[in-house]
Design a protein that fits this description.
mainly beta, Ribosomal protein L2, domain 3, 2 domains, 7-stranded antiparallel sheet, 4-stranded antiparallel sheet
């Protein structure tokens, strides 16, 4: 998708940019695969704010995504490419040979009318879902499973892709978008190709109103608050933090290692993203 710049007819439009959606199908989402996404607005059942800077936003419909791709050996056709307000990547609507319809994340280069297949017998084509053991080394993949049959949990953001680095003993080595090299069971499934909509990260929203429509509320700097509201607050005039960066609750905010020392997945990581 290409990036478009708006004519600066107002101050908010002067630096804002957006995506060109000409490649997507202009239609309502598949009725049988959507449900109303209830608003949490960063609050719990008692109405207390548990996640700051969330609230408002437009009404959304949650699209049901087929993360498991369990219909093996059956041909499906891409009948539309659609926008999804709940994620950065776009969606592709598949129609299987038995008439069932499913949503998947749309990879780069996927076209309407293209054939898609899942399972070990699927060819090495963009959008096809196969076990890692059936995918050649060096292939770009996305929608990667952490455990066989659990469904895709990794590499699901717009423009992301992982790469199969090789195989050792009973594991497949995959380089993730973060740069981390990790071991996966060869029977874990992944989808071939890089996810589309890679220009999403280059959008300049231009004004606060666009963020409010997305449900993102303003963030006030800690140094601009009073000392009873934030550890960085207080002082005469404009002053810096004056201490190590902290959260509003006094926890270290930057540079503190938060990963558990004896985490269960330590033996699955070959190379950390921060060497």
């Amino acid at each position: 998708m290409a990036l478009k710049l708006y004519k600066p007819v107002t101050p908010g439009m002067r630096f804002s940019s957006g995506l060109v959606y000409s490649g997507l199908t202009k239609k309502r989402p598949e009725r049988t695969l959507v449900s109303i996404l209830s608003k949490k607005s960063g609050r719990n059942a008692q109405g207390q704010v548990t996640t700051r800077h969330q609230g408002g936003r437009e009404k959304r419909f949650l699209r049901e995504i087929d993360w498991k791709r369990s219909k093996d050996g059956m041909v499906a056709w891409v009948i539309s490419l659609e926008y999804d307000p709940n994620r950065t990547a776009n969606l592709a609507l598949l129609k299987y040979a038995d008439g069932e319809r499913k949503y998947i994340l749309a990879p780069e280069g996927l076209q309407v009318g293209q054939q898609i297949m899942n399972g070990e017998a699927a060819p090495l084509g963009v959008g096809n879902c196969l076990p890692l053991v059936n995918i050649p080394v060096g292939t770009m993949i996305h929608n990667l499973e952490l455990a066989p049959g659990k469904g895709a949990q990794m590499v699901r953001g717009a423009g992301t892709a992982a790469t199969i680095m090789g195989f050792e003993d009973v594991y497949a080595l995959v380089k993730l978008p973060s740069g981390e090299i990790r071991r996966f069971k060869p029977s874990c499934r992944a989808t071939i190709g890089q996810l589309g909509n890679s220009e999403w990260k280059n959008i300049n929203f231009g004004k606060a109103g666009r963020k409010r429509h997305m449900g993102i509320r303003p963030t006030v700097r800690g140094t601009a608050q009073n000392p009873r509201s934030h550890p960085h607050g207080g002082g005469e005039g404009r002053s810096g933090e004056g201490m190590n960066p902290k959260t509003p609750w006094g926890k270290p905010a930057r540079g503190k290692r938060t990963r558990k020392k004896f985490k269960y997945s330590n033996n699955l990581i070959v190379q950390r993203r921060k060497r």
